[in-house]
Protein 1
Amino acid sequence: MATSAAQRFGRRLASSVPRRRFSSSAAAAAAAATGGSAVQRTQNPSLNLCSAINQALHIALDTDPRSYVFGEDVSFGGVFRCTVGLADRFGKGRVFNTPLCEQGIVGFGIGLAAMGNRAVAEIQFADYIFPAFDQIVNEAAKFRYRSGNQFNCGGLTIRAPYGAVGHGGHYHSQSPEAFFCHVPGIKVVIPRSPSQAKGLLLSCIRDPNPIVFFEPKWLYRLAVEEVPEHDYTLPLSEAEVIREGTDITMVGWGAQLSVMEEACLDAENDGISCELIDLKTLLPWDKETVEASVRKTGRLLISHEAPVTGGFGAEISASIVERCFLRLQAPVARICGLDTPFPLVFEPFYLPTKNKILDAIKSTVNY
Amino acid sequence: MATWLRRTRAVAHYLRRSSGRPSTSRVVLDRQGAPLPAVPPLGSVGIGRAAGRISPAPFPVFSAKRLESTRAEKHLASVHEAEDDDTVDDDDDDAQVLDFPGGKVAFTSRMQFIAESAEERVPCYRVLDDYGQQIENDCSAQVNEELAVKMYTDMVTLQIMDAVFFEAQRQGRISFYLTSMGEEAINIASAAALTDDDVVMPQYREQGVLLWRGFTLQEFANQCFGNKVDYGKGRQMPIHYGSNKHNYFTVSSPIATQIPQAVGAAYSLKMDKRSACVAAYFGDGSTSEGDFHAGLNFAAVMEAPVIFICRNNGWAISTHTREQFRSDGIVVRGQAYGIRSIRVDGNDALAVYSAVREAREMAIKDQMPILVEALTYRVGHHSTSDDSTKYRPMDEIEYWKMSRNPVNRFRKWVERNMWWDDKKEVELRNNIRKQVLQAIQTAETYEKPPLSDLFRDVYDTLPSNLHEQESQLRETIERHPKDYPLDVPV
C-alpha cells in the first residue's frame, strides 16, 4: 500500500511539474495586463501553490487597508504556511488567530465584511467547515438578498484546503464543494495551479459576493510554476479549455485536473484526442464553455474526488444532457470518489485514478 | 517542596531565556515539571489542528484538576523527599504558584470542587420599585423630561403597533406577526441608551429599537405586507425588518447567528477607532446555540466593543428556561468568558437605560464586550403561530401583564414627575392607533414588488443561470397566467 501511495504521489509530482500548459492562460493574461512579452514571462519566479496563495494575501492586504486575514493559527503562518509573514508585515490587528471555532470564524467574518471590509477567513481544513455551514448557508449567502440589497457581506472570502493528500483519512481529505454549490448567493472557486490560485484568490477577495475558495492542499508544495509577481486577477465564472481535443470533453477542477491530464496523455497514445476543461468556478458555473466543447466532441466525462452520488458532476451531467442530448454519442461518464467516507488505507482504491479515467475515456469513445 | 519550588522557578527562568518571552508567557510543564517547548513543532503538512483533536493532547499540561489533587501533592512531596532537601524557603507563601498562561495560579492542598452555582443568585439591578417609585441615590437623573416622554411615547406606540398588527394577522391581512409585549422597556430603554452611530444586530423581538431610531409605522407596515416599498422587496416573512439608514441589520430567522456577526462588526468599529459600539440582541433560548458561545468567546478574545443584550423572558416558544439551562440565568456566563456582566430588571425602563448606557461607555472606552441580562417576561405568544396557553398557566401571564407591566410602571414614574397625565395618555393612544391603522391601509394599497426582484440581489449582478431561469419563468407565466398572483407585476 505504501508503495502504491508513493507511486501515486510520484505521478502527481510528475504531472504537476510540467504545468506550463495549465498555467498558460494565467501567464498570458498577466502578460497581457502588463503589456509584457514572452521574455518577461520567463523571468517570473517559480512558486509553489502555497507561496502563490501567500503572495496573493500579501497583495490583498497591501492594496486595501480595510482587509483582514484571520483563522485558526494563521498568525504564525498557518499549519500549511500560507499566511507566513503577514502578521509581521501588516500587524496583529489585521492578521490574527481566532479561537478554535469555525462558526465563530465565519460569523465574525460576515460581520466584519458587512461593515465594508474585506474579510479573508481561513478554515484550517475543508473537513472542518461544517460547524460554519449555517453561517455560510443561512447568513452569508442570503445577506444581500434578504435585506433587499441594503446590506451585503460580499467582502467575505472563506479559504479552506480541501482534497486528498495520500494520508489524510476521513478528516483531512474531503472535497465538500457540492454542498456549497447548492447555495444561491455564494460563489465556489477552486484553482488548479499556483498562478491560477493567485489570480483567482485575488479575484475572490475583491469580488462583491461571499465566496468559498477551496485550495487543493496536495498541490501546496507539489505544484510549482512561474507566477507573475505583480497584482493580477483572473475572471470568475469562466471555465478554461486547458487542452484542446476532438473526441471527448473532460471536465474537472483543482488537483483532479493533473490526474485527468495524465489520462489525456495516455489516451493520446491510443489515438484518442481529449479536450480538458478547468471549470475553476463551480458556482455560478460556465455552462457555455462546456456546452460548446461537448457540441464539438459529442462526449463528456466528469471527474472529481468527492463521492459520485450528489456530487457536482451530476449537475454538470444533467445540464449538458439537457442542452446537448442529440449531440451526445455516449452516456456521460462520471469518474469520481466512491460513496464511502474517505478511507485511509483504501485511499488508492477510493480515488478516481488515472486508469479509472482512462478506461472510461476508452469505453465512452468506443460506446 | 523546596526542590519543587526551585525547579519551578528554574523552569520559568529557562523558558524566559530560551523563548525570549516575558515571564507571563506560556509555560508548559509536563507532569514532572520539566519544560516543554512553548510552541509545538510543526507537524507534517496535512496534519494540523485536527490531529490534536483526535489524538491525546501532545503535551500533557498541569491541568486544573491535578492542581487540586491531594494525590499530586503527595507525589510531589515524595519527589522532593527522594532528592536533596536542604534548602529552607525564603518566600514560600507567595512563590507557591503556577505561572500559567493567563496569570499565576495559586496551589492549594484542599481538594475543593467549584460549586455548580453560587449560594445566592446574582441580584437584579433596578431603579424603580414595583410601584414606579424611584429608589434613592441612583444615576437615573440623566433621564430628563424630554427623554422620558419620548421613551414613554415610544413604549406606548410599540404596544399599540403590536396590538393592531397582531389583529391584522388574525384578520388575514398579513401572514404572520410577533409582538414584543412585556418587553417594551428593554426595547425602548436600551435603544435610548445607544446613539444612532451604534450598530444594532437584532434577533426578531426588537422592533422597538428600530421604532426608537425613527423607522416609521408606515415602514413597519410596508415590511409586514411585503409590498413594493418594503426595503426587503417582499422576500422575507413579516417582522424581518432591516434598515441601512438606521444602522439596524436585517433580521434573519435562525437563532443566535447575529451574535458572532456582531463581534465582527464591532471589531470593524474598533479598527476604525470609531466612538461607537454594536448592540447584539437575543433571547434566553439563543444562549443554548453554539453561536452564542462562539460570539461571546470571540468578543472577549478580540476585545470587541459589543454589548450583548439578552432578553431573558422565561420562554423559548414552549421551552421554559428550566429546560434550557441550569446556570443562574445568563449573567453568570459572562465571567466564564472573561466578560463584564450585569443583571438588570428588564421591566424597569430606567434600570435598563442606566445599565445599557454604562455598558456602552465601558464598551467604547475600555474596548471590551459587556453582557447585559435583562429579566423580563414574554407576555404575548411566541408569534401568531403559537398559543402559549397550551404550555403555561394563564395566571402567570396575567401576573406579568398586570402586576409587572413595564409600561405602566414607567408611566407612574413619569406621572410622578408631572411630565404626563391622563389627558395626554388618551390623546396619545387615540392618535397612535389612528396612525397604525392608516399605515396598514396604505401598505395594503401598494402592489407587490415586480417579478424581476425575485432574481435580483442573489449576487451583485445577475448570473447567466438566473437570466435563463427568469426568461423561462416569464414564458411559463404567459402560458399559465392563472397560476400566478395578480398583485405581483410581471
Protein 2
Amino acid sequence: MGQSPNPDWLNQWQGLSRNMLNAWQDMARQAGVVAPPQAPTSPWHEGFEQWARLFASGGGAQSETIERIIDSAKGYAAFMQSALAAAANSGVAAPNWGEAFRSGFGIPGAEAMPFGGDLLRMLRELPGQGGGYAAIMNALGNLRPPANADLGELKSWLNLPAFGLLREHQEHYQKMAVAWVEYQEQMARYNALMLKAGQRGYELFEGKLTEREQPGRQIDSLRALYDLWVDAAEEGYAEVALSTEFREVYGALVNAQMSVRAQVQQEVERVAVDLGMPTRTELNNIGERLQALRRELRAQGGGDLAREVARLRSEVAALKAASKRGETAKPAAEKAEPPVQPAARPAHKKRAKARPAREAEPKKAARRAVAAVAPSSFSSRIAKFADASLGRGKKSAKAAKSKKKR
Amino acid sequence: MFPIKIEPTKAIDEVLTTQRKLAVALQTLREVDDVDFGVTAKEAIHREDKLVVYRFKGPHEPTAKVPILIVYALVNRPYMVDLQDDRSLVKNLLAQGEDVYLIDWGYPDLADRWLTLDDYINGYIDRSVDAVAQHAGVDKINLLGICQGGAFSLCYASTHADKIKNLITMVTPVDFHTPENMLSNWTRQLDVDLFVDTLGNVPADLMNLCYLMLKPVRLNQQKYIGLVDILDDKVEMENFLRMEKWIFDSPDQAGEAFRQFIKDFYQGNKLVKGGLKIGEREVHLGNVTMPVLNVFAEQDHLVPPSASRVLADHVGTDDYTQIAFRGGHIGIYVSGRAQREVPAAIHDWLAKRSR
C-alpha cells in the first residue's frame, strides 16, 4: 500500500470476525439450529457453516447451490483473511502480499480429479467374499504409499508367482494391488503438475501486481484483488493443462484408474457367479446382440423388406388390372423402382386403403409371397436371437422350426 | 508505487456487505421456487426409443416454408435453446416466422449402451429428418446443429445431402486438434477402449467434472463468489439456478457412441483429416454442398473459435457464411446480445435461401 497501513487492523479484523460469528449464532439459535459444541478454529469459516446449517433442514433444489456457495465463500474468506492479515502484520512497511497469497494457489476441484475419492470409497465399501478378499480390498482402500516409497520394489513383490489351489485368486489379487500402486504413482505425477500450475499462477500473479503499480491502475478493493488472483491462477493452470506433459500424465492417470476399476469389476463378477447372479458382462452381451438385431431389422424395414412389399403391391395391382380385363397378368413389379418409405410415415394406413376389397386370388397370392419372405427375416432371426440368448444351439432352433411346419 | 491501495474501512465494508447479502439470501433462497425451463409450447411429432422430435408452437403460424430441425449435443439437455421466456433461441426464431423442430435425445441408460454413431446419425437423425419433412410436407429441411450436434449434422449433411436444404452449425468443433483445445489435449492419450469397456456408459458426473476442470478456479469458486452479489435478488437467483440446473442436468453418454466419437473425432481428427466412416457411409466435408452458415463464439472455452472457423476450408459449398459472436459457448444462446443478434442473423440468412 502506498500509505501506512492501519496498525489496528488485526484487532479490528478479529473483532469483526467475532461480531459476525455472534450474529450468525444468534440467527441460528432463533431458527432452532444447534451449533457444534467445539470452538471454531476460524470465525469466518464457522460463520459460513452457521449460514449453511440454516438451510440444512430445508433441502430442496437449492441445497447443492448452497453447498457450492459455502465452499466458495470459505475460499474467498481465506483469501480475505490472508490479505487483511498481511496488511495488519506489516506495521508501517508495505505488506508482503505475495507471501500472503502463495499458499492460496491451489486449484479448486483438483483434489477430486478424476474422481479418485469415489474410487477410494468404492474400494473400501466393496463387499467381499471371504476374509482374504475383504482384507485385501480394505488394505487397497487404505493403501497410501509414502511420497518417497520405493513403489518399484513394492510392485516387484506383488509380481511374485503364485502357487497351489488358490493360485488364480492370489494372482488376481496381486494384479489388483499392482494396478492400485500404479494408480498411486500416476496420481503423484498428476498432483505434482497441479502444484506446478499453482506455482505458475503465483508467478503470474506477481507479474500482474507489478503491472498495477502505475497510478490509476492500483487495486482498491479486496474483490478486485481476488479477481486478479483468479485470472493469474487460471492462466497458470491453462499453461500446464494445455501442455504435452499434462496430456501424457492425465492420460496415464485416467488409464491407471480404469485399470483398477476393471480389476475390481472382474472380482465382483467372480463373486456374482458364485452367488448365481447375472453379471455385467452377461448383460452387456445380451444388450449388444439385441442392438445388433434391432439394427438388422431396421435395415430390412427400410431396405429389402420395403422393396419386397413394393414389388408385391405392384404385383397385386397388375393382377387386379388383369382380372378386370380377363387376362393373365404380367407382374409389373420388376420394372418399377420401389418407393422408399420413411420410418415415421404411417404406411399401414396407405396399405389398408390400397387393399382390394373383393378380389380373393391376388390377396392370396400376396399373402403367400409375404409368408415366403417373412420366415427368413423376422421370425427366424428372432428365434435365432432367443436361442442364442437362452444358450440353445442350432438343434433346438431346428426342432422349433420343424414343429412349426407340422 | 505499491500496486494495492485498499482502504481499511473499504475492506471491512466489503466484508460486511458480503455478510449482509448472505443474511438476506436466507430469505431469498427460501422464496425461490424450483425452477422451470422450456417455456415455449410444443407438440411431439415423432417418438422412437428415448428420442422425441418436438415441433414448437409460436403465437402465429410460421411464415417460413422450410422447417428448421435443431440437432443438439448428446452431452447436455437441449432445453438450453428454450431456457426461459427472455432467453430463448427457439422463441426468437418463431417470432421471426421460422418453423422450429428439435430432437430431444432423452437420457440414455444401459439399454442404450451399444448405440453407435451410425445408430445416432444414419438412424435417429435420418428418421427424424424424414419425420419433420413429412410433417411439414416438404422434400428437404434446414438442419441446425449445435456443438457435438453440429459435428453430427456435418456428417449427416455430407452423406444425406439430398435431404438438407440449408445447414447451420453453431459452436461446432470441426478441427479437433487446434492448440487451444483443452478437452482434446486431455483425450489424446486416453485408452478409450479400456475407458468404455470399464465404465459402460460414461457417467454424466464425470463429464461435468471434466468441464469444470477446464476453468477450475472460475467455475468451482469465483462463479459462486459472484453469486453473492445477486443473493438478494429473487429473479436473478432464479435465473442463476435455472442455468445451474442445466449445467448439471446432463445425460450419461452411450458407451459405443462415446468410444467412436473420442477415437474418430478427438483423437483421429478425421472430420478434417479424412477417413471418417459412419456405419457404411464415408464422410467427406467436400460433399456438404448446400448453403452453410457457421456461427461460433469468440470466447468459447469448450470449442475454441479456431476449431470452428476452419469449416470454411473443408466444405464443398460455394455458399458459405460465418458469424463470429462475441461471447462464450453458453452466452451464444442466453446472453442479452445473443437474443438480439443470433436469431435475426439466422433468419435473415435463411430467408435469402429458403425460397
